[in-house]
């Protein structure tokens, strides 16, 4: 199983998460590209640290929304969205090359991630952008949503993602952050929940029903309180159960 986290999101004096600590836990790092968060110097440091630890790197592309941290819905034209995604991947590729590593996948961020899970037009724009830059890049998307099939139909490899600290509805969609109980905070409960997912392919929904999910990667958020402790417990629980941990993108490249 792969463990991923959203990193490189600090901006100048504003610190977001603990990248160094998270990089010691995860196998893949979704690194901000400057549109929703991240300044070049901070992004470069995160990439260098990832390279030293052998952590796989992905482009965490988003809407141009620094104030809203990329979590506000936007409706860019296709020309804008394609160019924005190409721009972000290209920027991270340049920084990654300087850091001695390579961008291997793309994981859209926030509102863009949630929109393209079901919105065919914006999904196609993101897929078009990735194909234009490097068709060997893997697209990471929400497990059980149409974006994964749409990408595969156009020749992109995909990785299905589950969220360790987010509640699910019975249909496999995420509970909105605006709703009570959307974000889980108990490291032990979250770790056991992720072990169940790996072993059985199922989770319990917010209303107690069984949700079946096929996941290639588990996201442990890096910007929430107690994120590092939660990520460490998830990793520890999986290792104790004998679950091999490896970057999905690196495994596919060999």
From TrEMBL:
<dbReference type="GO" id="GO:0005975">
    <property type="term" value="P:carbohydrate metabolic process"/>
</dbReference>
<comment type="subunit">
    <text>Forms a complex composed of PxpA, PxpB and PxpC.</text>
</comment>
<dbReference type="Pfam" id="PF03746">
    <property type="entry name" value="LamB_YcsF"/>
</dbReference>
<keyword id="KW-0067">ATP-binding</keyword>
<comment type="similarity">
    <text>Belongs to the LamB/PxpA family.</text>
</comment>
<protein>
    <recommendedName>
        <fullName>5-oxoprolinase subunit A</fullName>
        <ecNumber>3.5.2.9</ecNumber>
    </recommendedName>
</protein>
<dbReference type="GO" id="GO:0017168">
    <property type="term" value="F:5-oxoprolinase (ATP-hydrolyzing) activity"/>
</dbReference>
<dbReference type="InterPro" id="IPR005501">
    <property type="entry name" value="LamB/YcsF/PxpA-like"/>
</dbReference>
<keyword id="KW-0378">Hydrolase</keyword>
<dbReference type="GO" id="GO:0005524">
    <property type="term" value="F:ATP binding"/>
</dbReference>
<keyword id="KW-0547">Nucleotide-binding</keyword>
<dbReference type="InterPro" id="IPR011330">
    <property type="entry name" value="Glyco_hydro/deAcase_b/a-brl"/>
</dbReference>
<comment type="function">
    <text>Catalyzes the cleavage of 5-oxoproline to form L-glutamate coupled to the hydrolysis of ATP to ADP and inorganic phosphate.</text>
</comment>
């Amino acid at each position: 199983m792969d463990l991923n986290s959203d990193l490189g999101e600090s901006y100048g004096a504003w610190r977001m998460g603990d990248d160094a600590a998270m990089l010691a836990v995860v196998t893949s790092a979704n690194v901000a590209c400057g549109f929703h968060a991240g300044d070049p110097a901070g992004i470069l440091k995160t990439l260098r640290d990832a390279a030293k630890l052998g952590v796989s790197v992905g482009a965490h592309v988003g809407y141009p929304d620094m104030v809203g941290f990329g979590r506000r819905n936007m409706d860019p034209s296709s020309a804008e969205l394609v160019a924005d995604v190409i721009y972000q991947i290209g920027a991270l590729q340049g920084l990654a090359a300087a850091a001695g590593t390579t961008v291997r996948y793309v994981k859209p961020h926030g509102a863009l991630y949630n929109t393209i899970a079901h919105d065919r037009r914006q999904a196609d724009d993101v897929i078009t952008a990735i194909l234009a830059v490097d068709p060997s890049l893997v697209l990471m998307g929400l497990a059980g949503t149409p974006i994964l099939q749409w990408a595969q139909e156009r020749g992109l490899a995909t990785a299905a993602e589950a969220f360790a600290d987010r509640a699910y509805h019975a249909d496999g969609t995420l509970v909105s952050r605006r709703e009570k109980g959307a974000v889980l905070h108990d490291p032990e409960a979250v770790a056991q929940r992720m072990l169940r997912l790996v072993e059985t392919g199922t989770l319990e929904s917010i209303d107690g029903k069984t949700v079946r999910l096929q996941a290639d990667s588990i996201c442990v958020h890096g910007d929430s309180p107690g994120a590092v402790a939660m990520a460490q417990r998830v990793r520890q629980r999986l290792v104790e159960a004998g679950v091999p941990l490896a970057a999905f993108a690196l495994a596919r490249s060999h």
